[in-house]
Design a protein that fits this description.
37% of the residues are buried. It contains eleven helices and six strands. A six-stranded parallel sheet has the order 2-1-3-4-5-6, with helices on both faces. By secondary structure, it is an alpha/beta fold.
């Protein structure tokens, strides 16, 4: 195992899940599970003691939900990134987690390889949201706007970044905001998946964004969906 392996704290109230996840991550030399915790209080103590690089946090914990425990965990280990790993597909949980400082939100149905990739992306500073949750994130954002959040006046005066996109790029961005994967987008427009990947790269570059999640939120903000 490399000395610069990502040090991970696993927080989940199910013992078998913690053990299984620890065993899965331990197969990858890029990761080192340094500890685990079964509830929010224990997680806070372990985070302060171990100072992990990453905390994998379930939301459904006994006593205090993971989302509610986030501020204390971030105070206990300020440098740690927190990645939610939960069964909850509720957009309110998703929005609350991101507002509280989580770097991403994944579902427990995720495959092992996808989880490893998500951890790497999180440590690179990217936002990571389960594809199934992207459309719900956009819906939550639109609901917030509908509840009375007004866009900044300066945003109206500034050039719309979407104007730099081609028609096909706008169509693909709309599909991203709906939560579609590259494979699904390729099927929709009868184009190769590699072509979709290139379009997505161009979209992110033109919008000066580093993740498709942020692109989806921008699409919602600008009324594209």
């Amino acid at each position: 195992m490399s000395d610069d392996a990502i040090r991970i704290l696993v927080v989940d109230d199910h013992t078998l899940f913690r053990r299984g996840l620890t065993a899965l991550l331990s197969r990858d030399p890029r990761f080192k599970v340094v500890g685990d915790a079964a509830d929010a209080g224990q997680a806070q103590r372990r985070a302060a003691e171990l100072q992990p690089d990453l905390i994998l946090l379930d939301n459904h914990l006994p006593g205090v939900n993971g989302v509610d425990a986030l501020p204390a965990l971030r105070e206990a280990a300020p440098q740690a990134r927190v990645l939610m790993l939960t069964v909850s597909e509720d957009e309110n949980d998703l929005a609350a987690a991101l507002r509280a400082g989580a770097c991403g939100y994944l579902l427990k149905t995720i495959e092992g390889d996808a989880l490893s990739a998500a951890i790497d992306a999180t440590m690179r500073g990217e936002d990571v949201v389960a594809p199934e949750m992207t459309a719900k994130l956009v819906a939550a954002f639109k609901a917030l706007q509908g509840a009375g959040a007004e866009p900044a006046a300066a945003a109206d005066a500034a050039p719309d970044p979407l104007d730099s996109l081609s028609q096909r790029e706008r169509e693909i961005l709309r599909e991203i905001a709906r939560g579609a994967s590259n494979k699904e987008i390729a099927r929709t427009f009868a184009i190769a998946e590699t072509t979709v990947k290139i379009h997505v790269q161009h979209i992110l570059r033109k919008l000066n964004l580093n993740t498709r999640v942020r692109a989806a939120v921008l699409a919602a903000e600008r009324g594209l969906v």
